[in-house]
Amino acid sequence: MERAQTLFADFKVNVVTGFRLLGGFIGDFQETENWMNEKVKTWVKAIECLSKAAEQQPHLAHVSLTKSLQNEWSYVQRVVANVEKPFTLLRTALESTFLPALFGSEVNQAEISLMLLSGHNGGLGIRDPVNSSTLSFQSSREGSKILSDSIIDGISLEMDLHETQMKKSIHQARELRDSLEQDIWVKTSNGLPIHRQKTLQRIKDGECSTWLSMMPTHDNNFLLGANEFRDSIALRYGRVPIKMPGFCDGCNQPFDLSHALDCKRGGLVGARHNESCDLNIDLLHLTGLTQTVKEPIIQEPDSDGNGGL
Fold first, then answer.
1. How far is CA 250 from CA 82, 146, 231, 253, 258, in A?
2. Most buried in the list 86, 166, 219, 284, measured by CB within 10 Å?
3. Cβ neighbours of residue 302 under 8 Å, at least 6 residues apart?
4. Alpha-carbon dihedral of residues 239, 241, 247, 248, nearest 10 degrees?
5. What residues pair up with 25 in beta bridges, in sequence order?
């Protein structure tokens, strides 16, 4: 460093040991870690902002994190090596701030381990920033091996070989990630009560996670309200919805999930039927079958026998 400053003193060149390049950073370990710490602080603040938004709009906050914010640090993980340590702060922010705001209640460590998995492996599609760091860089380096060798050796790039190498690397990284997540899922779920294990197994085997990756548009009612989203993710992990009433408003019996599905007096069975009916009619209208109409409401006649339908 001192020698470089001496050699370039007359040229007014700023000699540094690290520099930002193409969204990443090259330089010595200390400079890289300092730059990485500043990036992580920015992302932690963003998570705190999303956590505040999640109090009112948890569905939108979840999509903002999974579709946008986490892809920012995912890119950095692919181009910068040995940056696992700073991402522990990011995981802590997800555990202590974002996930509790998303659920509207506290979550324990076992639940967090499950939530920080891919959707098809029983998670919420939120990638663990610590576990994904090393794997992302190794996959990126392996996938760009043909390209980097071509640049270093000064030879022409074989695009077919490069594309084949990229696809192979992506496939291997996906298999390795799924294997690691499967181990986490088995180890964590085995420590839960039996009824929650069955719920998680049913969701995983039934591939009931597509809705988590859908964009929350108003079309087809893909945008869920705060209570709808929180109830959905609570049921996904065998939790009791946070606003579950104590007694049924139809029969005054103790209220739980089983009673909600069985009670004929509370109106929930009829509401589910009507919702399914309305959905089917809307889907038929989208296909052009506009002559399909809803079942007419039967109106009781008044005391004089008029107005009956």
1. 59, 68, 21, 8, 15
2. 86
3. none
4. -110
5. 20
Amino acid at 178: D
The H or E element spanning position 152 is helix 145-153
Q: In 3-state terms, what secondary structure has residue 17?
A: coil
Q: Rounded distance, CA 143 to CA 165, Å? A: 6
| DSSP character at residue 9 | G
| Model pTM score | 0.82
* Residue 101: Cβ-neighbour burial (10 angstroms; 0-12, 13-18, 19+): buried
3-state secondary structure 64-126: HHHHHHHHHHHHHHHHCCCCCCCHHHHHHHHHHHHHHHHHCCCCCHHHHHHHCCCHHHCCCCC
The pLDDT-based confidence of 303 (bands split at 50, 70, 90) is low
Cα 38 to Cα 43, 102, 155, 193: the distances in Å are 9, 26, 38, 41
3-state secondary structure 193-236: CHHHHHHHHHHHHCCCCHHHHCCCCCHHHCCCCHHHHHHHHHHH
Confidence class of residue 216 from pLDDT cuts 50, 70 and 90? confident
pLDDT at 299: 67
User: CA–CA separation, 28 vs 185, rounded Å?
Assistant: 37
Sequence spans of domains, the chain: 2-236, 257-286
Q: 129 to each of 34, 92, 158, how far by Cα in Å?
A: 18, 10, 34
What confidence tens digit (pLDDT) does each residue in 235-276 have? 999 998 888 888 888 788 888 888 888 887 767 777 777 888
With bands split at pLDDT 50, 70 and 90, how would you rate the model's confidence at 51?
Answer: very high
